[in-house]
Design a protein that fits this description.
By secondary structure, the protein is of the alpha/beta class. Helix content is 37%, strand content 27%. Strands 7, 8, 9, 10, 11, 12, 13, 14, 15, 16 and 17 form an 11-stranded mixed beta sheet that branches. It has a 6-stranded parallel beta sheet with strand order 3-2-1-4-5-6, with helices on both faces. Strand 11 and strand 12 form a beta hairpin. The protein is elongated. Bound molecules: NADP nicotinamide-adenine-dinucleotide phosphate. NADP nicotinamide-adenine-dinucleotide phosphate binds next to helix 1.
């Protein structure tokens, strides 16, 4: 029996998927034993010029037609955004159709509700491509590692920002120059806000944390700081201290609960994530039994992302043929989300101070009063001004902020020029 497939969208990802479903139909059948037949494709504009010409009889501008077509057993949502994608996915699941989506925004905001809907009708809702593009990470978390009480998932989940930071660290580029170059090369959108502000990474962090720890983490519960204010000078200072700067999505689970955050982070130059360059993505997973795992590869692009979507389509099609109901792969239970102020990390702090006796003692005293202990300090004088670089030991977020705020009272301080979190296994 042929499995009828309907596509909601045929852009960068949908177009690459459609080409393979149509051109490789025989080869896919030979490999998988499945006959996957595209029966409807919804787009916004029927007349738009496309890399892959969609057969006219498949096209519609009404996405409801795809979801309502009795010949469509499996709906692939690659239109993006929350609306109307969310309601279309819900309707498809309610009608007993399997759904595959690449939409991180939707899965981060409404994933648990939609997975419940899928469980009620006993169909699959698969979303491998929603995080890390072509990198298999959702299936490892929900299947291969389903029995592992994971303690950490940490990754580079946005290619644009990784490209910008790579240019800044390897070539000394300033943020604005790197951004213009990335836009010219097609690595950054004309409006790069979602990427550079970290909000794209927040959606992915919420999905990864929810799956890794089995507790729903909403994007609003993820701390976010982008890379807009990162200065090339700090990237360079970090390098001299043995660190590489990355925008990391970090989800930790400890006795106190779950912490999920996205922010610029110095990692040890020996850490596997430090070697992930350019637009590549990588996710590092840690568990008590399995140890450390690294998943890396192309985090975006039509071809790689369509490979992940196609894998889900094949999986969902097999389940449709196997029987009337699918056992849900994902279950969520209770769990405490730790308020961000309580989270603990090391810090890099750069201060501009007067080059005067007693400066170091005054700064150390202010940090000590806020219960932040300094691990190491470097001082570099320039005329009557000096730069003070400090690395702290593990400190509570709230304490570090209090320490930095209290520096404002010191006459010797000119500016707290930078404060960047450090993820290091060194004591
Ligand atoms: N691009 C990537 O590298 C990548 C990687 C991972 C995940 N994703 C996710 O994959 C999804 C699709 O991304 P994309 O880059 O392929 O987007 P895209 O190129 O903008 O394609 C969107 C498609 O949806 C259609 N569409 C949008 N709104 C519609 C509506 N209301 N009714 C009918 N059709 C509509 C568009 O029609 P027209 O063609 O007529 O405009 C287009 O074909 C998003 O959720 C994205 O986050 C993308």
């Amino acid at each position: 029996m042929a499995i009828g497939i309907g596509l909601l969208g045929s852009g960068v990802v949908g177009g690459a998927l459609l080409r393979r479903l149509i051109e490789d139909r025989q080869a896919l059948g030979a490999r998988t034993g499945l006959d996957l037949e595209v029966r409807k494709v919804a787009v916004r504009s029927v007349d738009k010029a496309r890399d892959f010409t969609i057969p006219r009889h498949l096209l519609t501008t009404d996405p409801e037609e795809v979801v309502g077509d009795p010949g469509v057993h499996l709906v692939v949502e690659v239109m993006g955004g929350l609306n109307p994608a969310g309601e279309l996915v819900r309707k498809a699941l309610r009608a007993g159709k399997a759904v595959v989506t690449a939409n991180k925004e939707l899965m981060a905001a409404r994933g648990s509700e939609l997975l419940d809907e899928a469980a009620k009708t006993g169909v699959s809702l698969l979303f491998e491509a929603s995080v890390g593009g072509g990198i298999p990470i959702i299936r490892p978390l929900t299947e291969t590692l389903a029995g592992e009480p994971l303690s950490r998932v940490m990754g580079i989940v946005n290619g644009t920002t990784n490209y910008l930071l790579t240019r800044m660290s390897e070539d000394g580029a300033q943020f604005e120059d790197a951004l213009h170059e990335a836009q010219a090369k097609g690595y950054a959108e004309a409006d790069p806000t979602a990427d550079v502000s970290g909000s794209d990474a927040v959606a992915k962090a919420a999905i990864l944390a929810s799956l890794a720890f089995g507790t729903v983490v909403h994007p609003a519960q993820v701390y976010r700081e982008g890379i807009e204010d990162v200065q090339a000078v700090d990237v360079a200072y970090g390098a001299t201290l043995g660190y590489v700067l990355k925008l990391l999505a970090i989800a930790d689970k400890a006795e106190e609960g779950i912490t999920v955050r996205v922010h610029p982070t110095f990692v040890d130059s020996s850490h596997p994530l430090a070697a992930v360059r350019g637009v590549a993505n990588a996710v590092f997973v840690e568990g008590p039994e399995v140890g450390e795992l690294l998943f890396s590869g192309p985090g975006a692009g039509g071809g790689p992302t369509a490979t992940a979507v196609l894998g889900d389509v094949i999986d969902a099609a097999r389940e449709l043929l196997a029987g009337p109901r699918v056992t849900p792969r994902v279950r969520f239970g209770p769990g405490r989300i730790v308020p961000f102020e309580e989270s603990i990390t090391k810090w890099y702090v750069r201060l501009r101070v007067l080059d005067a006796p007693g400066v170091l003692a005054a700064v150390a005293a202010a940090f000590g009063q806020a219960d932040v202990s300094i691990k190491s300090v470097w001082q570099e004088g320039r005329g009557d001004e000096a730069t003070l670089l400090m690395i702290t030991h593990d400190a509570k977020e709230a304490n570090l902020r209090a320490a930095v705020a209290s520096l404002a009272d010191l006459d010797i301080l000119k500016e707290v020029a930078a404060s960047i979190r450090v993820q290091s296994d060194e004591p």
